[in-house]
Design goal:
The protein is α/β, with parallel strands linked by helices. The chain has 2 domains: about 325 residues, Alkaline Phosphatase, subunit A (3-Layer(aba) Sandwich), CATH 3.40.720; about 170 residues, no CATH class. Helix content is about 35%, strand content about 20%. The strands form 5 sheets. The chain has a 9-stranded mixed sheet, with helices on both faces. Strands 10, 15, 16 and 17 form a 4-stranded mixed sheet that branches. A 4-stranded antiparallel sheet has the order 11-12-14-13. α8 crosses α9, α8 runs parallel beside α10 and α9 runs antiparallel to α10. The N and C termini lie far apart (about 45 Å). About 5% of the residues have low confidence.
Length: about 525
């Protein structure tokens, strides 16, 4: 088979981690994934920094770092304009894998890949991913295929109920709802695989991320909160996912490359760190607070029994009721003349911006803050909460690197950083209530499995998410754009993978005013807030 005729099937498992998959594979619970591991190369796929869905899948699709493609978080922060907006595919500043393959004359199909909404023109079909909110014509490219495709799959849904609804639904019902969403997604993908021409096909399982956010402790037998009955309930999702993987692989031509990957891994988390109030407590961040806002802060602090929080979760399921306002950084509350550092975006990892307009020695402040973060201890446990601090200039490079954070703090095991809010969080440290919040959090180490003609049985790989796109292109005989930061993973194959290179012109910068409808934005905020991303 020549590279130009090679087909590639990519199966995305959002948040998949060897921490959970390996024990299940060893126990014989996931026979289809086990078969793929035995047939090809596999290992750890290092995520973006921070390991969040939006920048991670952007790294994957562009083969480049966020300084080039512009996506650092679920929100875009324009540092010069001090403006935030929710991301969409319009904000990607580099061509995606789908556009590059299309330009080479290949037929592509992408189903439910994050950062593909709204779908951009390709030589094939794109069905938008998790940032879409409605199953309407805006979901599909080309739009005229919507009625035909959704008529065959009227039960197709982008996402299951939001994570915050799991308490009112009950565990079994919530798990079944996620199984149903992914089963229907698999059916639609199989329909397209059989009925449409394709050279490059991807379908992504988003619900794995929701399940692990909600029930990671029930899948980790070492967790103190592990419960065998709960484990049996949640295991049903993993078995259904494995069955879907088997059906999709079986439907692909036998000489196809099959790639299974995740955008990040997962871990158990018991403690939250909120950087905005910590920066405020240390004098780095100064607020401008009106008398009315001060009164609201006092009222929140007086709610010692957290009754409003519980009512909001179980009855209203409304983040605004829970916190009194949207759980997002209020940039308008920052005193820009006196603040030396602030938080604009970021969760999972702590993202700190330095106020370059008010700081004479930026490098000196960066080192001071990095040292301070590395010694930061949780007063409730006495444990260090940061294991590493990255400098933005070490992680990001490219024309949009200035919009990224100056410091990125990687949390210690069992810790995570919360969404950047001055409004919702008054204290820097909090324990996670597994009934009300999410016990599972993102970890940088995802998974990679690669099978195909010439693929060897290499184990224990440790490669980067940005390496996947150039390797896919090289395997298909498509020139790799020179702007890609990733490398071709030739070590996974017994035969030499020939790669040529090409130059692409940069995409036009997105219009910050282009975005979601007010209704879609509110629905998207609710879903992302429920996952702790906003």
């Amino acid at each position: 088979m020549t590279a130009s005729s090679r087909k590639v099937l990519i199966l995305g498992l959002d948040g998949a981690t060897w921490r959970l998959l390996r024990p299940l594979i060893d126990a014989g619970e996931l026979p289809h994934l086990a078969g793929l591991v035995e047939a090809g190369s596999s290992g750890v796929l290092r995520s973006s920094i921070p390991p969040l869905t939006a920048p991670a899948w952007s790294n994957f699709q562009t083969g480049a770092n966020a300084g080039k493609h512009g996506i650092f978080d679920f929100r875009v922060f324009d540092r010069a304009a001090r403006k935030l907006w929710l991301v969409s595919s319009r904000d990607l500043k580099l061509p995606t894998l789908w556009q590059i393959a299309s330009a080479a004359g290949r037929q592509v199909i992408a189903v439910n890949v994050p950062m593909t909404y709204p779908p951009q023109p390709v030589n094939g079909i794109v069905i938008g991913g998790m940032l879409a909110q409605q199953e309407d014509q805006t979901l599909i490219y080309p739009a005229e295929r919507f009625d035909e495709i959704l008529r065959r799959h009227p039960q197709y849904r982008i996402s299951p109920p939001v994570v915050s609804q799991r308490g009112s639904m009950g565990r079994r019902a919530f798990v079944e709802a996620n199984i149903a969403v992914e089963r229907e997604r698999c059916e639609l993908a199989l329909d397209l695989m059989a009925g449409e021409p394709w050279d490059l096909f991807m379908v992504q399982n988003q619900c794995l991320d929701y399940i692990q956010h909600s029930y990671y402790h029930l899948m980790d037998k070492d967790a103190a909160e592990f419960d065998p009955a709960g484990h049996a309930d949640v295991l049903r999702f993993y078995k259904a996912m494995d069955e879907n993987v088997g059906r999709l692989v079986e439907a692909a031509p036998p000489d196809s490359d099959v790639v299974v990957l995740s955008d990040h891994g997962f871990k158990l988390q018991h403690h939250l760190v909120h950087l905005a109030p910590w920066l405020r407590s240390q004098g780095y961040l100064v607020e401008e607070i009106s008398p009315r806002q001060r009164l609201l802060q006092l009222a929140r602090r007086a709610d010692v029994l957290k009754l409003r929080r519980h009512l909001a979760h179980w009855v209203l399921r409304d983040k605004k009721a829970r916190f009194g306002t949207a759980a997002s950084t209020a940039l308008g509350r920052i005193d820009w003349t006196r603040s030396r550092a602030f938080v604009a975006i970021g969760s999972v990892f702590g993202c700190v911006y330095l106020n370059h307009d008010a700081v004479a020695d930026v490098d000196g402040l960066a080192q001071e803050l990095a040292d301070h973060l590395l010694t930061l201890a949780d007063p409730d446990t006495g444990r260090q909460v940061v294991q590493r601090v990255f400098r933005g200039q070490e992680v990001y490079h490219g024309p949009f690197a200035q919009n990224g954070p100056d410091l990125i703090a990687e949390p210690a095991e069992d810790y995570t950083f919360g969404a950047p809010s001055l409004v919702a969080h008054q204290r820097p440290f909090a324990s996670i209530d597994f009934e009300l919040e999410i016990p599972g959090g993102h970890h940088p180490d995802g998974i990679l499995i690669w099978t195909g003609n010439g693929a060897n049985l290499r184990r224990g790989l440790r490669v980067d998410l940005i390496d996947v796109a150039p390797t896919v292109l090289a395997r298909m005989g498509i020139p790799v754009p020179e702007h890609m930061d990733g490398r071709v993973l030739g070590e996974m194959f017994d035969t030499t993978v020939e790669a040529s290179f090409q130059t692409w012109s940069p995409a036009e910068a997105a219009d910050a005013d282009e975005g979601y409808s007010p209704e879609d934005e509110e629905a998207l905020r609710e879903r992302l807030e429920g996952l702790g991303y906003l």
